[in-house]
Please model this.
Amino acid sequence: MSFSPDIRWNLLRGKMVPLPFQPSSLVRVFISSVFSDMATERETLLETAYPEVLAFCQKHGLMFEVIDLRWGISELVDTDHRNTQLCLEEIEACQKLSAGPTFIGLLGDCYGHQTVPRLIAEKEFEALTLQLSGDSAQLLTQWYQRDENALPTRYVLQPADGQAWHHVEGRLASALQEAAQKAERGGLLSPEQRHCYHKSAIEWEIEHCLLNNQQSNQGAFIFLREAEDSDKQTDKGTNSDLAEKEDNPDSEAEELLSNLKAKIASHHPKHLTVHTLTCSKDSRNTQHKRSNRYLKQLCEQFTAVTNHQVLENLRYRGQISEEPERLLEELSHHAALCLENCRFFCGRQNLLDNIFHRIRQNNDKTHTALILYGPPGCGKTAVMCKLSEQVQAVLGQDTVVVIRLLGTSQLSSAIHSLLRDICLQVCLAFDLPPPSNQTKQACSDLVLFLSNLLLSVSHCSTQTLVLFLDSVERLFPYSGAHRFYWLPTDCPPKVHIIISISTAEHDILKALQHAVPEAEAYFEVEPLSSEEGKEMLEMLLASDRRQLSPAQRAYLWHKFPIGGQALLYKLAFHEARKWASYTSPSELAIASTAQEAMHCLCERLEKSHGTVLVAHALGYIASSRNGLSDMELKDILSLDDDVLSEIHHCHFPSSKSVLRLPPLHWARLRSDMGECLAERKVDGFTLLSFAHRQFVEKVQNRYLSKQDQTKRHFLLADFFKGTWSWGMKKPLILPDLSRTLNADRKVAPQPLWFSDTVANRRKLSELPFHLLNAGRIEELKEDVLGNMNWISCKIIVSGIQSVVDDFAMCAEQIDCPELRLVQNTLLLLKPAVSSIDSLKGLSILYTEVLARLLFLMPSYPDVIGKLCEQCLSWFSVCPYPVLIPLCGFLQPPGGPLNTTLTGFLKGATAMALSSDYKLLVAGSQDGSMLVWNMEVIEMLHALPGHSAEVRCVKVFGKGTCAVSAAMDHSLRIWNLTSGRAKFVIQDTHFEEQPSHCLHVDERRMIVYSSSGTKVNAWHLETAELIFRISGEVTDAWMCSAVFSPRLVIMTVSEGGTLSLWNSNTGKLQSKCQLSGLQEEIPTASVLIQKQGKMIVGFSGGSLSTISSAGNSLLEKLPGSVCFVVASEDESILAAGFGEYVRVFLADSKGFHRFLAADLEHEGMVHTAVISPDNSLIVTGSQTASIQVWSLTAQGLLTARLDGMGAPVTLLALCDSTLVSASHSAPYLRVWNLIYNQQQKTWAPVPDTGCTALSHGGNYVYFTQPEDRHKVIIWDTREDYRVLYGMTTGDLFLYDCPQSTVFPLEAHRSQISCLESSHGEQWAFSGSEDSLQCLWDLELCQQEHEMRYYKPTSPLKGICCACFSKDDKYVYTGALDESITVWDVASGALLAVQCIYTTASRIVPTADGFVATTKLGYIIRERFHCPQTTSPQDNPLPNVMATCTVKSRKKEGENLSKQQYNQGSSSGNPVRTNKRSQICSVV
Model:
């Protein structure tokens, strides 16, 4: 959809200006025809053309709806004379909404029914009555009554009895036509006015859409069926299907018909298509053939016209699914609703003034959000809209307004899409960088982004931002929306948030009061006063061009002596607007409560339309998940046997082959329900739902017993499943007529995909909900929860979170362990598939599901087994290269990885648990902080404020408070209950180092902050500086500790100076030089309060015990100490150095060595944590590996946790839950240390060093454990070559028989992997910088230089590789936890797979490879590569990685090499005749 720059600007900034209508996703066509003359044509179109057009529209993401109010009814009964006006209103709706043609007129031999006007202007009626006398004049005054309530006054045709009306109507029409002709001759009426009394219904419709409408007639078309003159005379009086007439038209009707046709032909020839039929005396068979030919041409032309109009409209609309066009469409939806709500706003001036006064007061300071509250129907939404309309006049025209009427659209109903769109709108309005694709995938990421975004707006802009969120109770409850963790705790200056909420939702209101506890932030929306209510009613009546008589007005005011809720006045208006001035006082009725008004409405609807139709139609709307469209409702009611039985209780349907609800029944009911229905934007369509919560409750109580609710869901499930589409006939029993009909209901088909790119969004949204509530659990498992086609489709269309929400919804009602396992699998793979938006990226999903669930396939065959089979089937026909898991190698559900906590934009730098382990607080490199509830693993708060890296966090006050220190030279003391900063302490000494260490003394209410040159003491309750200790810049403190019981602060400087200070006053007590350190520098420390000592590690490996008495050496470690940690009870100490951790146990003298052997990692150890019961120690390393050791079993390694994806620098342990974080990763992993032991799949692959076996078994290469820098070669032959690489990146080929070294082009870093092909034509080399090269060993030159790497991954380098059996591909494993597949001939990257660990070795199989990982998992995969692949195939869909390939330019040797490649690429393994093997000398 294309928005002009001005409209775009107004929408983004929230300007309340009228907007041009934006096209919908609905093709809505009104069919106009004479009642019976075109019955055959209408029936043929229904059976043939409509389904074809429907399929075409669905393929383009559109709904198709035909409005044919004359289909399916046996006779024209219009007792309240509304049908003509109803048709004209439907035509206007088509002109407004249709994304294709709007009007199709079918005109034949009959002029049609000449209607009697329902309304006649006062002066015109009086002119007519003057022309008549006697019975004719009396007839007019008998049937028309003067209504002075109409503005201007009109005469109204009175309702009639259906049986007698036909006779009366004819007399009345004759009298009016006679009077009109006389009045025209007397100059009292114009010819146009006179003609109105002769017009048929079809002329009214054609005039309204085509003849009198020059601007909107592009979508109007007339199909004219003509008969040749001679045959007309010959065939006059015959009774053929195509010439059927309602009556024999008289000469006047023929003249009117002829004039109408001439007018169309002369004024709109391009909109007219003429079909000429020859009705001769030929045989019936010949006539039948001609008729069939004509009907076929009609269908073809209808289809062609409609499809052409749709395509033209689509070209105009453009692509609305792309940002920001999708956002702009959402904004236009809310802007239009705001304007509508402001139209009849009145009163409330004091409330508006008070709110604006508070906004002005808060504009220059930090403040809380403002809350509007009140009962349902009090008018909160109207107040919010009025505030948004006027706020720019109060704060300035450059104020940016963001308003969302929550629940009125799909995007404003879910917290994730709401936050995403708000962030995007604010960024575009203020010209700020929008959120990244990665940020937009997770709700927690958006929470933090929004918090930081509001700060940026406040600091960097001169403009004010006001955000209105109306009816927050209407947010879906998923993702913790009703806990308000997403709501910024404080609004910075020039940023305002205003929220409205219903007091009927007590739990949600209570949660909001917890998030915003300040009483002064709340404003009550009280009932309208009596005067305000009168003003509102007068405005509504005037807008409808109505008024009330004095007696009626007095009756109405008497009903509301003290005012009332806005909704009640609105309902009163809908009742009062029906009163005419002649309405009897006894017929006046106004409800005094909203519930009573709705009861009266339901009774009136039932009386007019039948109880069954009303009950079922309203029941379906109330039972839907998100609402239903008009077309869906008509289809659903057409499937409802009870509804059709009631309609056809005394007569058979007019059609023999099609059985549907006559559209007129729904059109009349829909018109009468106007005040209780509202439109919502969902799934790209406009759906009907109830306007107010009270309507929903009334319908549920009145029409939806438990049994009825199940029936409604059952039929809705049938509809969205497509059970009765595609020509499937559904029988209908008509008990009153003792007949069973078996006919096609002609409902829309419901495939999962309408085309390769257009999914059935409505089915995806509604079907799971209805299958669940209908109790059709097995179908739910088979068609939805256990269906990979469904899961993958919904992930592409709606994102992984929508699938998780479906599973969560079902898990509440279904006790099925298998479904919970699948749900947990989706949570595990959520980070990997969160950005999938096309079919090309599905291989990631299918790989993840298969590699995680294959473990469980034998135990759970019903759902998990079928999911795995579906994955394998999908892989077998995958059109692009892909790796297919043949065994489980990714963590299955129930394994150690519980979930991933997102929200940070950069790496985590600080982390702390509350003393009861219920809260986790973490800070990141960009200064953001997040709080999680660890009992339910949910985010509680985002803590904004720091502008630079958070260095330290401490939680105190039993988890109610925290303090943080950051590189922005500030300390912040937080209230973790409210998520607000209690105090902000800004250090003004910016030339000094910011604090990086904190200690909280809760007994004395002091927090100590220290850096290299200072220690500050602050009061926790007042934030006052108690004292400050300054150090020497030339000898900075490296370690500091506060001994609370001893009132001592201890510092150790870089030069080894120990200083003791009084922790109450900050006065120096003593200073001395540590002994025996030999110029070592302190690198790490831990405080042992019980012993009054500090354990300090030094750069030279010394681990010393330091107290006020001095220092003593605890242990001399082999390397520099990188960390020291102690257990909670200070009885166990662990020190990390290099790749090792040494553990000590406390005794009466201090500490002694606890474990005989050090705990060893593959890479440098960064951190460790000891469990509260001292049974475990968990360590994290540079290689992204976490290892769990048993302290009760002498340091036995009990588990390895891989998948962090970055060096592990922070660990926190609460009970059996472990949290890991990294300075290099913007997420935290949560692990379960007592996971299901059955999921442990350690493979018996011992680490025996580096060993290689040649393919013929002639050579064995290995290293000795004591000297891995030496390669030993056992040789049984004389003729061999050795390829070897160096730490410098140099690469050489050594020819042993010739004793010749061939230098190859060097890598830029250490060679980490070498491999030769089976035919020994090729060699592969990989290095630590991820560079990979393919070499031609015959020519001793490089063929391809390939590089694949993830910019965000700190882990780089190639670990292992192998050639496929036929030497066509190279499989490589890298430190970034990926396996890649390369084409040997071209060097192209074919496939990438993330394995969440590092492959240590890869061995080829007949159709793929087997790999081992450093965790001991076995990976077995088959490589599927179609014979032909598209050049546009991207091997990196949804992977944040970069791939480059450089190939050598081939010249004269091309021919021979191509012939060799072609000969060895037939798919058969290359004959193994290796003359040499490879080795890496490091």
